Amino acid sequence: MSELVDHLAHLTGFRDRDVLDVTLVSAFKDMLRPESVAIYRCVADPQGARWLTRARLGRDDVAATADPAWIELEHLPRLEDHPHRLACLRTHEVQQVVVEGRHLSLFPLDTDREVVGVLELESEQPLSPSEQRTVGSILRIYRNFEGLLDYSERDTLTGLLNRKTFDETFLKTAVPMAGSAAADGRRVIGGESSHWLGVIDIDHFKAVNDTYGHLIGDEVLLLMSRLMRSSFRFHDRLYRFGGEEFVVLMRCGSEADAAHAFERFRYNTEQYVFPQVGHKTVSIGFSQIKPTDSPSSAFERADKAVYYAKQHGRNQVCGHAELVARGELEDGSAISGDVELF
Fold first, then answer.
1. Distance CA 290, CA 103 (A)
2. When comparing pLDDT for 14 and 269, which is higher?
3. Which CATH number fits domain 2-153: 3.40.1400.10, 3.90.550.10, 3.30.450.40, 3.20.20.105?
4. Which of 51, 82, 52 is CA-nearest to residue 66?
5. Which pLDDT score, from 0 to 100, does residue 234 have?
6. Which pairs with CB-CB distance under 8 Å and at least 24 residues apart come from 304-309?
7. Is 45 exposed, middle or buried (0-12, 13-18, 19+ CB in 10 A)?
8. 125-130 long-range Cβ contacts below 8 angstroms, 24+ apart
9. Which of 120, 219, 244, 300 is catalytic?
10. Among 38, 143, 296, 341, which residue has the fewest nearby CB atoms (within 10 Å)?
């Protein structure tokens, strides 16, 4: 019992989701001595749903392994490639199966709304009823703790990440160079892509609140967040900074790729018909993140670009580097001039 209490105390001692998942698989490895234990999350975007490895430990592993945070979707296995995981995901029930002499125990990982992943244990013998109950109890604590993290990290209205979380995660997710180790010691594989920060501002949003009221304004914000989720990739970080301002952290191969991604969202927004309000547009500014950037310095460059977009017609995407190259902006200088932004 004391070992279980120690593991629970360790599990709830972190506020980092990556560390939380590593701690969970480490606890099950120590308690049940399986051949392997892993957490797989179901992730999806317009291309379909795939399995993302959040943390995996084999019997002899010293450190957990995981898929890179910015991995491309096509590099991940499809849901149907692992039918037993898929059955667990769809039925919301524990699965006990034997595959090529291996005993697999699969437990659903759920939230208040849906099952989002699977805990998979491989062992020489099937788990006993007592061991299954222990796993289930720990997973309920894990679920409750994740709910608390969601409450502190996400915007209440839209469900997007909040501004406080941006400052806390920026250095971990955007600045580390390719091939670096994760902060929790997990082994990950880096790439050659660069990180980009975009600021999105809804054009003339004040007029929506003034004309239709704040309830309709909130509906526009909620629908805008859904457009963001459907337009960007599953691993892009989406934030609401407050009011009508949103931020995106993404990883792309080039400035042209980043511009294309933001242009896709701008176009999708322009084509969407918001109930009662009709068509709305967005102005977007973006900038490449430098290894020496702080959250405020990267945001400042993208914010200057979105300010320029609003000052010069709105409903467009502007890259800070291109504006500097054209002489429209001075690198590191503020934009002056009076402009009505709403």
1. 47
2. 269
3. 3.30.450.40
4. 52
5. 87
6. 304/329, 304/334, 304/335, 305/199, 305/329, 306/199, 306/200, 306/201, 307/335, 307/339, 307/341, 308/335, 309/283, 309/284, 309/285
7. middle
8. 126/96, 127/32, 127/96, 127/103
9. 244
10. 296
- For the whole model, what pTM was predicted? 0.79
Q: Report CA dihedral (153, 155, 159, 163) to the nearest 10 degrees.
A: -60
Q: What's the topology of domain 161-325?
A: Alpha-Beta Plaits (3.30.70)
List the domain boundaries for the chain: 2-153, 161-325
Say which residues have a Cβ less than 8 Å from residue 236's Cβ, sequence separation at least 6. 248, 249, 250, 251, 261
Task: Put residue 152 in one of left, alpha, beta given phi > 0 → left and psi -120 to 50 → alpha.
Answer: alpha
Rounded CA-CA distance 261/271 in Å is 16
Q: Which residues have a Cβ under 8 Å from the Cβ of 257 and sit 6 or more positions away?
A: none
CA distance 262 to 231: 9
244 is catalytic: yes
- State pLDDT tens for residues 77-130: 999 999 999 999 999 999 999 988 899 999 999 877 677 899 999 999 999 999
pLDDT tens-digit profile of 272-312?
999 999 999 999 999 999 988 999 999 999 999 999 999 99
R_g of the chain, CA atoms, integer Å? 22
| Burial of 268 from C-beta contacts in 10 A (0-12 / 13-18 / 19+) | middle
| Residue 25 amino acid letter | V
For residue 156, give every residue at least 6 positions away whose Cβ sits within 8 Å of its Cβ, in sequence order, or none.
none
